[in-house]
Specification:
It comes from Actinomadura rayongensis. The chain is of the alpha+beta class and 119 residues long. The protein is built from four helices and two strands.
Amino acid sequence: MAEKVIRVDDIDGSEGSDVAKRDFGVLDRTFTIDLGDENDKRLREALETLELFLAKANEVKAAGKGRRSASAAKVKGYTNGDVREWAKSAGVEVSERGKISDEVYAAFIEAHPDAKPDA
């Protein structure tokens, strides 16, 4: 027994011989959708318009990302717990929790030259 596949336009629900899977890309991602010729034309025009705006726009990074990597790069091969433990034993004032001052990191690196992060 033969089966017949009828493609339906995902936008307007129309059926027709022109309805086909259409692939398109946006921001390095690929999508697929079933569209007839008219809706495919509308999609391509919208993508061209979007490209004009994307070419002039700046990407906004998510808040908080990047800051962590900057603080993690204060010392290489040691944890913040190691820095706090050393500071206490060396008589350097350091908080139990929260941000460790740049001065404490600098003193730790001076005492542990191998902890200096790669530039």
